[in-house]
Amino acid sequence: MAITADQIPAQSQDKKPAHEAEMTPKPQYDRDSYRGSGKLKGKVALITGGDSGIGRSVAVLYAKEEADVAIVYLDEHEDAEETQRLVQALGRQCLLIPGDISNEQFCQEAVEKTVQELGKLDILVNNAAEQYLEKIEDIDAARLGSIFSTNVFSFFYFTKFALPHLKEGSTIINTTSINAYKGNASLLSYSTTKGAILALTRSLAQPLLEKGIRVNGVAPGPIWTPFIPDAFPPERVEGFGKQVPMQRPGQPVEVATCFVFLASEDSSYITGQVLHPNGGVVVGA
């Protein structure tokens, strides 16, 4: 049963990134009705931001589809270890790789460690990001350097280092946002990075077709993840999700199914495209 906006109480966290373990109610990363059918059998996925939120759900559903996963995260060890436990309970391997994705060398090391320990790499999910509630007057070079290094540069780094290991049939999936299409005055720098990710996705898709690699994106709307108590004050967290036609927040599992589809042969005729799990908001393609 979906969590309604009225079930989201005011809350905040001192930690940044926020931790899923401290959220009320807990995000829904899985559902009993989801039955894997071997869509990703034998594949290996690297998921940035895989410790919690959408990334955790992607890791769990990929495991249900018989893939092994490596998850990259900053320092949310409790959340990451819980994701690892969930994946391993499904009989799959889950490699934890903590570190700063704004650092190019770390991104290279994360890819190499994935290949060394899990044997190969078939699916790259560029998902990790940071965001800030801000006005244009708040933004300086340090802020821009931080958010673009995490939200955009890391996508370039991971893709560059993953490419030598990817082969025909491999996939790259980038998390952009509804804000890339509609804009968001209070999340100015974040929305701008998500627009860059949209352009990156479209720009990479055609040249990588020569190698048989598909590149697509997912643009979530208001999803109940640690991103929300991380960025917004308690009064804006309360009732989160009412702004969309469905009048409720989406859950990570309602987004992760898009990542399963785009990673599998079900989407074999799709590249350079973006899926929109956003609660009914109509945006440009």
Automatic annotation (TrEMBL):
Give the start-end ranges of region Disordered.
1-37
Basic and acidic residues composition bias: which ranges? 13-34
Q: Which PROSITE patterns does the annotation name?
A: ADH_SHORT
Could you tell me which Pfam families the record lists for this protein?
adh_short_C2
Kindly state which keywords UniProt assigns to this record, in alphabetical order.
Answer: Oxidoreductase
| InterPro entries in the cross-refs | NAD(P)-bd_dom_sf, Sc_DH/Rdtase_CS, SDR_fam
Q: Which NCBIfam families match?
A: PRK06701.1
Family stated for the protein in its record: Belongs to the short-chain dehydrogenases/reductases (SDR) family.
Q: Which protein, by its recorded name, is this? A: SDR family oxidoreductase
Native source species:
Almyronema epifaneia S1
